[in-house]
Amino acid sequence: MVKTLPFFEALAQLNLPHLHRNLFSSPEWMAAIHKTYGVRLFVKYIEENGQVRSYIIYSVVRNFLEEKICICSYCDYCDCPVASAEDWRAFFSSLREDYPQFRIAVRNLRDETIRQSPDFRFLYFEMFHLLDVREDMDIVWKRTHDSFKAAVRQAERGGVRVRPCGKENLADFFRMHLQVRKHKYRLFPQPYRFFENIWQEYMEKDKGILLGAFSPQGKIIGANMYLICDKTLYYKFNTSSLDALELRPNNILFWEGMKFAKQRGLDFVDLGSSGYNQWGLILFKDHTGAQKFPIYHFGFAPRTYQFSKKRILNFLTRTFTARWMPDGILKLGSDIIYHNLA
What we know:
Layout: E1 2-6, H1 7-13, H2 27-37, E2 40-48, E3 51-62, E4 67-71, H3 85-98, E5 103-108, H4 112-115, E6 121-132, H5 137-143, H6 146-157, E7 161-164, H7 170-185, H8 192-201, E8 208-214, E9 220-229, E10 232-240, H9 249-263, E11 268-275, H10 279-286, E12 291-300, H11 310-320, H12 327-337
Parallel strand pairs: 4-5, 10-11
Antiparallel strand pairs: 1-2, 2-3, 3-4, 5-12, 6-11, 6-12, 7-8, 8-9, 9-10
Helix pairs in contact: 2-8, 6-9
């Protein structure tokens, strides 16, 4: 009943419905993460009358940290078109048969069926924001919080200007991205080649834009990378210079992103996921006027499963993101380690 194909073979051989209903199941996103990280991507599917009735996209992760099946790696969420609880049970049984020693991880936003499954248990949740931009921009503006409006006006008065960036600015974007991840969050940055692959899959195909915020002196002080899928603009990556936050580049960058979505005739802006304890980030997204929903994380682990060696990862992360660590070494460490964080 359940059949399996590598993801890109499935694209060529099957009609998989709803691939573009969100960014994280789209062929462009899968191509970018596959080229960057070498992710092993597969599709399990069930047919009815010669058509695909249900399917899941998943990645097979096997590295020094752990062995798991992820639906799907490097995704905020990945809702799969599964027609019924019985189909989910069939997919679960097939995964268990193929990978009996692996745990299974699911990131779920809108799929009510998976929430009814007795095979997975709830682990934790994150917050997700979605902004409706279908009405006139003056209405969208009025729905933003007063503090958001004030920050945008402060940036304008301070001489901050926002404009589209070319690929020559990608290195500036990455430099700020690395600094924020290192000094604010103490996390590995995504490798530079990831953003190069995103540029190839999106910007070169007019499916995205890198908006840069520039100081009155013409120095780039912030940037947002927006990606388009179907009728939604995805606010995927934001970064800013840590010594220019008083100019409020993040607020004006998002406001210009909202206007860009409207210009392109899009309906929504997806603000992505936020950890439930990232109160500052959640508050910023709340102030844009976006609606808030939970992203549920579900999982299954065999009784004999050896969980991720977090101590090793934590040691590497704290070492490479230490203040005294040269940025070039952190960049190299990211190239070596980040593909293990699927």
